[in-house]
Amino acid sequence: MIIETSNLTKKYSNKVTALNNVSLSIDTGIFGLLGRNGSGKTTLMRILTTLIEPTGGTASILGMDITPANKTQIKRSIGYLPQEFGFYKEFTVSEIMEYICIMRDFDKKTIGETLEKVNLYNERKKKYKELSGGMKRRVGLAQAILGNPPVLIVDEPTVGVDPEERIKIRKLLNEYAEKNTVLFSTHIIEDIEYICDKLAILDNGKLLYSGSIEDLLKSVQGKIYEARFNTKDELHKFEESHTVISFKRDDTQVRASVICENDAEPSSIPYKPTLEEVYVYLTTIKGGK
Ligand SMILES: Nc1ncnc2c1ncn2[C@@H]1O[C@H](COP(=O)(O)OP(=O)(O)OP(=O)(O)O)[C@@H](O)[C@H]1O
């Protein structure tokens, strides 16, 4: 395994338990980390990148235990795009890359090919302040993949970018993951659906699921069903005694996906839930919200 954690725990000094006994095994490919705001995704990534230390449990990357003694070596094997990436706004794209090369002791010759990988080669003379939000995210990705690290950790790279940019970023991560490991944190379920091989769901610091999307969808078979109503008022009445995950209207009816509280729901209609509905189901039932 490329990344492993065992009972990883982080309690901050304000007593918030941001990670609670999280055990994960991550191999080559794209591994998605899904969870709502505050579920612990950034905390996990910051531990893996050696920026903060856990208060319990262990973690390793490429067989190296994440300890202060291994920090330098681990940092050389990881590329990291934090959630809030910014840079001196007067620097050009090339200057940013050169600066990172100097700071991290990388060969400047790799800058051109790195910028090509993120489709920014033609923008290399533009100042950071002149770039669109999506381009800025791609500069962030470029600095993370400089030196071709075997592990790339990206924290919500698609937040706040338009659909076209989002697709570009996904494509790029996909290509990078052909030979490397990408840990990709997001709360955008479509990101996971489109490119991740496996995923982990975090909620309130706890691991609710880790494995393939296929197995996740199978694991909830029979636990979500569809109910149909003629009007929205009927649906609202039903909601008083049932947990409705989502609903949509067609020309004649309102169709709702509902959590099956008892095995024998009289009105149940076989239904294949979407990943989004499964996510809501898990965070409602297992997350206890
Ligand atoms: N430095 C800190 N000191 C105290 N509490 C913190 C600190 N950093 C994060 N937390 C808390 O830990 C919990 C997990 O936060 P974290 O940022 O890891 O979640 P997240 O899933 O990345 O959320 P988001 O999607 O909003 O970035 C939250 O309750 C947060 O308020």
From TrEMBL:
The lineage of its organism: Bacteria, Bacillati, Bacillota, Clostridia, Lachnospirales. The keyword ATP-binding applies. It comes from the Bacteria. Belongs to the ABC transporter superfamily. It holds the Pfam family ABC_tran. The keyword Electron transport does not apply. Residues 3-229 form the ABC transporter domain. Keywords: ATP-binding, Nucleotide-binding, Transport. One of its GO terms (molecular function) is ATP binding. This is ABC transporter ATP-binding protein.
